[in-house]
What we know:
Oligomer: single chain
Distance between the termini: 71 Å
Number of strands: 2
Number of domains: 1
Shape: elongated
Number of helices: 4
Amino acid sequence: MIGRDEQAxxxxxxxxxxxxxLRQALISHALIDQAIGVVITLGGLRPEQGWDxxxxxxxHTNIKLxxxxxxxxxxxxxxxxxxxxxxxxxxxxxxxxTRADADGREDAREVRCGRPA
Length: 117
């Protein structure tokens, strides 16, 4: 039978691991959000299209989303991005635009500050 001290230690360890996972998730989320910003700036896309493009690049290069995001965020400062990601970007931007058109998403040029133009 496990004593109270052992149970408390096990629970503390489990909670510390959970906090570590949550911290890593927050870092990854922030990195992905920044990468979406880079993609929408480069491609002239809306945020949801930037997310679609980022996912497309990850899926079609077989590189984890977090790693694609890191490369995209570091690109402006480093002045370079891995060739496989650079080659995948135009197709991913086009995919995101085509997907938005197929889904009937509203064109950002038609709406300003939440009001029709």
